[in-house]
Specification:
Elements lengths: L1 E5 L7 E5 L17 E7 H15 L5 E7 L8 H13 L6 E7 L1 H13 L6 E5 L2 H7 L4 E6 L2 E8 L4 E4 L12 H15 L1 H14 L7 H17 L14 H10 L6 H20 L3 H13 L11 H10 L7 E4 L2 E3 L2 E2 L8 E4 H13 L2
Parallel strand pairs: 2-9, 3-4, 3-5, 5-6, 6-9
Antiparallel strand pairs: 1-2, 7-8, 10-13, 11-12
Helix pairs in contact: 2-3, 4-5, 5-6, 5-7, 5-9, 8-9, 8-11, 9-10, 9-12
The protein binds nicotinamide-adenine-dinucleotide (NAD) and zinc ion (ZN).
Length: 365
């Protein structure tokens, strides 16, 4: 079992446990002041793993109850937050209750947002169960819900008191969810760690198979994310590098009416943004080609899933960071390092350069 102490930027390091069986005993991260445990999670995941987590809470604190959240992005809503708050209040939640959040990014984001505001703030633990949540969403303190006008528009920064990452929980994850996590792993490697990138290249054939993964790369992803968050907890500068692939990726998702999965959209987004980076900030063509090749070997599509660049423009333009005729994006200068530190890692990319990058990606073999 690996135990990291990660400081999310407030000088108070939080434990992160990583390893097979980590979710079987939560006592190592439990605090004496937490006198009750509320198990909050994705209903589907609770059906599969809820008993296991309840057993892991034995000896920590008496359970206040189990509180399900309906699965799926469509339920990442203010209504879901309100319902959870009402159920917790009816059960007698108080400020000595720790919320134990179990599920993918959706459940963790909703549970974390409730923890941020209920009784003006409760402690919570994250037990991520999707690959995406294990390498990304479980850590960093962003919590929130969607609104009809857009994703994650209402939320708060509220760091989990601990994160418990158990790769054995991934055995039941639907195979279609696997690429969503893989895309974020590639992103972490490109933005911060050429060593992780090389590891992914060497193990691509194993890693692309859903269901099982070595804890070591998960640990590396969490270390990378934690270091970036510690530098810039509220995303005014360096944390923006975590948006690599997401400017174009989000536009693809939105333009497709959210029918393109996140991993596929971000993967195509990384490929297009890397092509723009070759034009705008000197990313070597060889690095860009390595990225495209890794995406291919991991089964991630590099080709934009939406045919028409013009369909993306309204969504690209809607991004708060953008200016007339240009968007601001986080772009790599080589694998493992991002360009534009002086501009807060938000590089102005003329729409025409992005259009050319898009066309090039469509023509690619
Ligand atoms: N807070 C952050 O920093 C952050 C970062 C990245 C993404 N996110 C958010 O995360 C969300 C996406 O997360 P996600 O991809 O985990 O989606 P998700 O939470 O919807 O989970 C994907 C699907 O897998 C199921 N599932 C999860 N774990 C399972 C398991 N072990 N066994 C069986 N089924 C399982 C879920 O029921 C769901 O149907 C988005 O809303 C995104 O905004 C947040
Ligand atoms: Zn993402």
């Amino acid at each position: 079992m690996d135990r990291l102490a990660l400081d999310p930027g407030d000088g108070r390091p939080r434990p992160v446990l990583i390893g097979h069986g980590a979710a079987d005993d939560l006592a190592p991260v439990w605090r004496p002041g937490w006198r009750a445990a509320a198990l909050v999670g994705d209903e589907r995941v609770l059906g599969l793993h809820g008993d296991r987590v309840l057993r892991a809470l034995r000896g920590c604190a008496p359970p206040l109850g189990t509180f399900g959240l309906p699965p799926g992005e469509a339920h990442k809503t203010r209504a879901a937050k309100e319902s959870l708050e009402d159920r917790l209040l009816a059960a007698g939640v108080d400020r000595a209750t720790c919320l134990v959040a179990v599920g993918g990014g959706v459940a963790l984001d909703v549970a974390g947002f409730v923890a941020a505001t209920l009784l003006r703030g409760l402690p919570h633990l994250n037990v991520p169960t999707s690959l995406l949540a294990q390498v990304d969403a479980a850590l960093g303190g962003k919590t929130g819900v969607n609104t009809p006008r857009g994703k994650n528009l209402v939320g708060a920064f509220h760091h989990p008191e601990a994160v418990v990452v158990d790769p054995s929980l991934l055995a039941t994850l639907p195979a279609a969810e696997w690429p969503n996590g893989l895309a974020e792993m590639v992103k972490h490697a490109v933005v911060a760690d050429a060593g992780l990138f090389a590891w992914l290249e060497a193990h691509a054939d194993d890693v692309r198979r859903p269901g099982a993964i070595d804890p070591q790369p998960l640990r590396r992803c969490l270390e990378i994310k934690a270091a970036i968050v510690a530098d810039d907890p509220t995303e005014h500068g360096r944390r923006r590098i975590l948006n690599f692939g997401h400017s174009v990726g989000h536009a693809i998702e939105a333009a497709s009416g959210w029918s393109v999965p996140h991993g596929a959209a971000v993967s195509a987004g990384m490929d297009v943004e890397a092509r723009a980076a070759v034009r705008c900030c000197g990313l070597p063509e060889a690095d860009r080609a390595r990225l495209a090749s890794l995406l291919g070997r991991l089964g991630l599509p590099a080709r934009p899933a939406v045919p028409d660049f013009d369909a993306l423009v309204p969504y690209l333009a809607a991004d708060k960071k953008n200016e007339r005729g240009a968007i601001r994006a986080a772009l790599p200068e080589r694998i493992g390092a991002m360009a534009g530190a002086a501009e807060g890692y938000a590089i102005a990319v003329p729409l025409d350069a992005l259009r050319a990058a898009w066309a090039e990606a469509r023509r690619a073999p």
